[in-house]
Every structure is written in C-alpha cells, then in structure tokens.
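pasting input
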Amino acid sequence: METEKKISPGVWVTQVSAVTALGNTLDATWQRLVQGDTAIREVKRFPTAPYASRIAACIDGLHPGESGSRIESLIDNTLDALTAIPKDAFLILATTKGPLDLLEEKGFRSATGTEPFLIPDLVESVSRRWGLSTPGVNINAACASSTVALTLGGMRIASEKADAVLVVCADLVTEFVFSGFSALQILSANPCAPFDRKRKGLSLGEGAAAVLLMSPRRARSQGISPLAVLRGWGISGDAAHIVSPDRSGSGLARAVKQALSAAGIGPEGIAAINAHGTGTIQNDRMELAAFQSVFKDRAILIHSVKGALGHTLGAAGGIELAVSVKAFQEQKIPPTVGCTDPEPLGKGRIFPTPRTLPPGCILSTNSGFGGVNAAVIIESGEIP
Amino acid sequence: MNFVVTGLGWMTAAAWGTGKTAAAFQPVSGSFSDAEARFRPAPPYPRFNRMDAVSKAAFTAVILAAKDAGMDPSGRKKSAGIIAATRFGCLETDRAYMQELSSREGAGAHPHRFAYTLPSACIGDAAIHLGFTGPGFVVQEKNALSLNGLRFSLDILHRKEAVSMVVGAYDTGLLAPPAFENKTPAYALFWVIERAAVRKKGYGRIAVRKNDHVHFRGRRVYDLSGILDRIRGASKGSGTSPLPPLSFTQEPMQ
C-alpha cells in the first residue's frame, strides 16, 4: 500500500505568521523561544482555584473582536502580518473550539445581537473580512487539527484542485477547556516539561498561525519564492482509545512513514523533529516510542515548543510549522524549555538549549483525542 | 481514478437504516434519543451508552454504512478513514458542559462529558469500533451537506492514503439559530467510498471531474443530498424493500 503512494511534487509555503503568548509576531516569538523563555504563568482571565493548575500561556491584551470573541482579533492580528492573500485561496481554518469564549459569556450569541456565532460563522467571517471568494471550512481533528488542515491543503494543491490554500489555525485559553483538562487530570501544576522524566502533564496556551500554501506554478507566475516546501504528509488513526494514545506509538509511526513515503525520502532525510511534546506522561512516551521505531538509534534532534508556548490545541501544528520555517532561516533548532532530564529515549536528542540545524528536512507531528496522528515534512525554501 | 459508493448508513430521530432502506430516510424534527434507545451496535461497543446523543447517531450511521458495504465489523485494523461534516457538531454537549461547570463552579466538570465537547470524538469511537487506522476528522461548515468533505475523501483515496473512506454529515436536532428555540431535523448520513480497483459493485461510481465538479452515476451532483436522491430514485416504488447493489455494467462511468 505505502509503496504505491504518490510522491508529492512539493507544495510551496509562501507566507507564514504567528501570534503566541511569547510574542505578537513570529520573529518576536522566535527571539524569546531561542532564549529559553516561557510564557506560561498565572491565569488572570478566570478563577483557577477549583482546578489542578493555575497557569497557562495567555496572550496579554487580547480584546474581543467584532463578534465579541477574542478569537476574531487573534486571527486578524495573525493575518495582518501576511502581505497580499490571493482572493481565490481556499480557506481552511483549524480550531478545536473557536469562539468558545462567547459560550462562556453570552451563550454563543454574538456581540451584535441574538445571532449565534459558531465555528462555521467564524469561518465565513474570516473569509468575508479577508475578501476570499469562497467561504472555506474548519477542520477539527482535536490537537492534530492544524497538521491535518495543512495536509488537506497540501493534497488539494498536489491534486491540482487548488492553486492557493490559506490555512489559519487558532485556539483560546478558556475556563471551559481548562476545566476539562483539569478533570482529565492531565494539567500540570507547574509549567510543562515535555519529554522530561519528571513531567507531570501539560500547560495550556493560546495562539494562532497563518500559512499560505501555493502551487509552485502559481507562485512562480507571480514571482514568489518559497519560504519552505511542504514535501510530505500522513494522517493515521490509533483505533485504540478515545482520550489516550496507543502506548506502542504504532499509529504515529505509521503517519510518519506515510509522510516519508509521500516525500519520497527515507528516515535519513529528516534532520530534526518538531514533536507534539505536550508534557503528559502518556503522549511523550508514545511519541518517543514512535520515533525510535522509525529512526532507530540515530541521535536525531527532537524538540517541543510547548514548554514555552503552552499547548495551543488546534493551533499547535500551524504554530509549530511556522517555527520550523524560522528554524530553516536561522539554521537553529529551539530548545525544549522545561526539559532538563530527558526520558531515556530522548537522551542525546532533546536539549534545553538551541542546537544547530543539520542539513535535511524537518518532521512536525501532532496527535489528538480520538487517536488521530498527523505528520508533515518540510524542507528549506532555499533548496533549488 | 474511479471510485464506487459501496455502502450507506443513516439515522434520524425516528429510525435508522442502510442503503437498502434509503427510501425511508426522512429527517424529522426532534432528538435522536428515541431511535438510539432501540439501537444496539453489533458487536457491542462498551462506550456506546456513555456517548452523547449526536455522537451516538453519527457513530451508528458510520457502522451501518460499513456494514452495508460488507466491511469486516470486527475491530481488526484496516486501512479506512472517516470524514464527517457538521454545522452544530457538539453544541448541545458544549452547552450541557457549560451549564454543569457554571452550576458547580467548576468543581464537578465531568471528564467524560468533556471528551464529547469535541465533534471528532464520535468518529474516534467509530474508528476504534471498526478498527479504522486511516484519516479521521470533522469538517465544520454552514452547509454540512456540501461536497467539501467528499472532495477531501476522494483526494485521500486518489493518493492511496486509505483503501476505504466513510464520508457524510451529521447534525443535532435541538438547537437551531437564530434563537436556539426551534428544532431542526436531526440526521446522520454516511457513505462508504472505495477505489473501483478494490470493489467492483456498489450504488454507483463517483468521480471528481473538471473544475472540481463531483459526478455520481455519470451526472453532476451539487451536494450530498444529490447522491442520496439518486440512490433513493433507484428504490422508488420499492418502499423499504432491499435496494439491489448496482454493478458497473448497469451504471457505466460517463
């Protein structure tokens, strides 16, 4: 089956932007990320006393948008950093809960009246305000939403069904979500420590990313060069458990192998992994098992940004892809903030300080509730 | 590349069925609970009674579609995926969770209910039950019957990233805009689509043609209901009698 798969001709990443709790631009986020800073701190937005944790990575000064939801202004701030979005770009939003703050405050009714403002309304609102010719869709694949959205965008272009796809990923920190993760007993009382032996769980974060994908033909015709090339992708299901990953890592390993196959490269073509790395006991163990099965004993660089940015849920994969684009530009892999004593399978691979990026591609992975796993492979746009 | 619709499963507030009873598919106002109370997955799924109503309906329609397509009903791993489109998704569960959170000041938020505040939880359950190891995700849009999810599934099949895809739509039947007072028809409706090289017989061939237009049985369809109408058209006059699968020789690709 996998040997029959089509090798992707490559989809160009022509623009990226990100807004995180660490910085209101991708550059600002990157600067603090490589310094080893963390944006995880005490939550002021809602009372945290009933919950297992009091911390998250919230964006300061994030005001409600036109609808009354903060997610609109978060998305607008992210898209403001892009120049010239093609009007015919197909919009794929990736959010798990969208304007959930409206449910908490107004029962999902928008600020302008009694009309509800749900995720499909958010999609249409983004499309309309940015002048796109089609309404678009939202992809919900739990914490793998962005990476699945990037995969679908890549497939639309590789199948020559679209020339441009705008992937917009965003999620907020809300009491609703905070309480749920607390009830699941996977929130860490201290800032999360991905892949560390003493990790106690995840820290939530909020943020957004925008990624403009284009066919090489379309981009060349407009004189646009790629920042990076989306070479391969894979999506798999564990078919094991609804809120826990398959401990063997076989589902994620299958997604990674699919991505390698689609990219037409072997494991040796991967220089570094931008892992999901949530800081939960089960996720991080599963991921290291998956990477071990694919990359064997090779000392491949692995890192997670969640100790700095928190777990941004549906936005995670998009933000991580944006960070990987910066990693190519700066030839550097950011540190895994919070990890000082890595799990045995992470030793010699995971570091609390930045590392030089070796030549090759970056693999970015995410996994989510429902057993979904997604992987994308990108290479530097400077490779001819 | 050619694809075939090989199975159909559905649930409404009143009943459930497969392609053989497609003519009986009639969304009615109300919630799923009456129909769900009578439905029992076979083989049993331990989490079924812990799922919320809309998740149960989507789960039921997916496993009925798989059964209709003759797929192995056991949880043995297979290269298949699920794409479900929805407008309201888990809105009812979101509201119930929020109510619980508000009334108990956060102390009693239930982890079980929280899992179903993700609209993709139901397809995760169906994938576990059926052993599907392919892509699984939800497409949220105002018109859940649009062809976007179907196009994604055909992209996946075309690139051979799964052997079979179950694709369809579901929506809750309780809370309709603008005022969340009127009930909308509740439904869950799913098809199994496979490459023609894998399965030779089914309800008809489906393909994406020029300009991303979707054709079923040689004619363009504009949304998912067009596929259902064409299948129901074949069963007109037969009521709920079995709808015989159509072979390629009867419905050639045009």
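fyi The helical segments of chain B are 33-38, 53-68, 91-103, 111-115, 121-130, 148-158, 224-234.
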